[in-house]
């Protein structure tokens, strides 16, 4: 699968689910629940214990799901993530070295940027998708103001967004979303598993309806 193929899948699904947990043991069941709920693109962040091992495991178990690495803040993490099998990299910052590592390995980058200067810099250095982050604290009005002069840029909105605000963001022109804490939680029993499955289905429906 080429870098462009992966970008097309992400743009088509319009949702990247962020897995950031404090215990590695929670990750496999959370991945199972997300996939059962229809999630096709997920990232495991570098500040989640055992993230490299879990990326490799998820890729093996779910070959038809895109599995990436999140919180890739520098080239060292980027190299480790790609070696572990990450199919895309997600950053909270704008770092040219991460793009270099990713593109050298035919892997796309969802690059974090917030201000017009950061966004234009991310585009300039070759980011495949602009991750507008952290956007919830800025609001839809801010996004519209940024989108005006940068109308050709496709944005994924990420960072503390409430699920019930998705229609408003869609209406404002957001192309996709990154959701984490509102969707992902440790699984202790079957009801926790079922709730993630149900919520994932609801989110997908809301995004695509």
UniProtKB/TrEMBL annotation:
The keyword Transferase does not apply. Gene3D superfamilies: Aldolase class I. SUPFAM superfamilies: Aldolase (SSF51569). Belongs to the KHG/KDPG aldolase family. The lineage of its organism: Bacteria, Pseudomonadati, Bacteroidota, Flavobacteriia, Flavobacteriales. It holds the Pfam family Aldolase. It comes from Croceitalea marina. Homotrimer. Keywords: Carbohydrate metabolism, Lyase. This is Bifunctional 4-hydroxy-2-oxoglutarate aldolase/2-dehydro-3-deoxy-phosphogluconate aldolase. InterPro entries: Aldlse_KDPG_KHG, Aldolase_TIM. Pathway: Carbohydrate acid metabolism.
